[in-house]
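Duplicate of #3305? Posting structure anyway:
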C-alpha cells in the first residue's frame, strides 16, 4: 500500500536525510490520512524505541512489538519484593527459577496446519524511560522451526488484549518478512542496476506487481487445471508463468509446436488443443 526509501546520510547528492524511525512515523500518518482501516501497528525490536511507543500512543493506536532482551522492565523482584527495573534477559532467568508454575501455554498455528504450544508469562508494567503503560509478554520458545531465537519479549500498549491475540498479531510480521525474502530471492527486488531514486522505485513497483500476480495465481489455484504438477512455492509459480510466456513466444517464432509444448508439463486438453491449431 505504501513504502518509503531509506537512504543513508552519506548518500551522494541526498540532502533531506530522514531516519528509519522518522520514515516509520510518516508511513503511520499516511495510512491514517488515507483512511486505511487497521487495528494495530506491528514492528520488530529495532523500531521499538520510547519515541515510537509514545508517538503511536498519542495517536490513540495500538502497538504490538518485540523489545530487545537488554531493555529494562519494571517489576516486583521475587526475593526482595521491591519494585525495580531489570533487564529482560535477567528477568527471564528469575521467571524460570521462581515462577515456573505461573507460565501459561499458548497455541500458535504453524505452516503445516498444526498448532505449536509455547510457554508464556505476561503482566502489566512499563519500560524504563517510557511513560506509556504496556503489557509485557515473555515467550520461552521459538515461533516455528524457521525461528533462530529461543526466547522473545513482546509488548503491547493494548493492555486488554489477550496474550494469544497479541502474539498472533505480532506474528503477522512474518508474512511480510517471507514476502520480502521471496521478492529478493525470486523477483530480483534488490538487484536493480539503476542509480536514481525514481528508477529504483519503479523497479520495486514492478517487482511488487510480479510477486502479487504470482501470489494471486497460486492462491486461486489458476494452474490446477493446466499443469500436472502444481507449484508449491511462489518461485515455482513464477517459473510456470515464465514457461507459458516462453511457450507463447515459441509459437509465434516457430512452427515446431511439439518442442514448444515440451517446455512445461501440461495436462489441460483445451490448452493442448489450442497448441495444435
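Output from current build:
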Amino acid at each position: 500500500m505504501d513504502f518509503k526509501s531509506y537512504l543513508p546520510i552519506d548518500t551522494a547528492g541526498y540532502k533531506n536525510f530522514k531516519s528509519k524511525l522518522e520514515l516509520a512515523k510518516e508511513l503511520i500518518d499516511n495510512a491514517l490520512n488515507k483512511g486505511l482501516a487497521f487495528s494495530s501497528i506491528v514492528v520488530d525490536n529495532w523500531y521499538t524505541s520510547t519515541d515510537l511507543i509514545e508517538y503511536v500512543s498519542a495517536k490513540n493506536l495500538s502497538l504490538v512489538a518485540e523489545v530487545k532482551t537488554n531493555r529494562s522492565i519494571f517489576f516486583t523482584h521475587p526475593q526482595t519484593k521491591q519494585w525495580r527495573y531489570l533487564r529482560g534477559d535477567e528477568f527471564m532467568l528469575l521467571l524460570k527459577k521462581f515462577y515456573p508454575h505461573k507460565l501459561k501455554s499458548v497455541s500458535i498455528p504453524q505452516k503445516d496446519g498444526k498448532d505449536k504450544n509455547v510457554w508464556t508469562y505476561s503482566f502489566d508494567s512499563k519500560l524504563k524511560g517510557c511513560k506509556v503503560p504496556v503489557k509485557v509478554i515473555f515467550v520461552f520458545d521459538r515461533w516455528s522451526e524457521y525461528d533462530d531465537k529461543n526466547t522473545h519479549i513482546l509488548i503491547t500498549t493494548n493492555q486488554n488484549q489477550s496474550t494469544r491475540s497479541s502474539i498472533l498479531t505480532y506474528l503477522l510480521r512474518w508474512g511480510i518478512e517471507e514476502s520480502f525474502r521471496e521478492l529478493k530471492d525470486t523477483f530480483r527486488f534488490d538487484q536493480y542496476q539503476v542509480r536514481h531514486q525514481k528508477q529504483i522505485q519503479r523497479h520495486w513497483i514492478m517487482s511488487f506487481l510480479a510477486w502479487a500476480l504470482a501470489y494471486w495465481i497460486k492462491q486461486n489455484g489458476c494452474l490446477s487445471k493446466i499443469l500436472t504438477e502444481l507449484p508449491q512455492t511462489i518461485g515455482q509459480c513464477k517459473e510456470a508463468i515464465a514457461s507459458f510466456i516462453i511457450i507463447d513466444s515459441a509459437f509465434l517464432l516457430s512452427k515446431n509446436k511439439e518442442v514448444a509444448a515440451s517446455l512445461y508439463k501440461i495436462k489441460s486438453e483445451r490448452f493442448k488443443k489450442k497448441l495444435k491449431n
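Confirmed duplicate; merging threads. The beta strands are 40-43, 62-66, 72-76, 83-87, 104-109, 115-125, 134-139, 152-156. Residues 105 and 119 are 5 Å apart (CA to CA).
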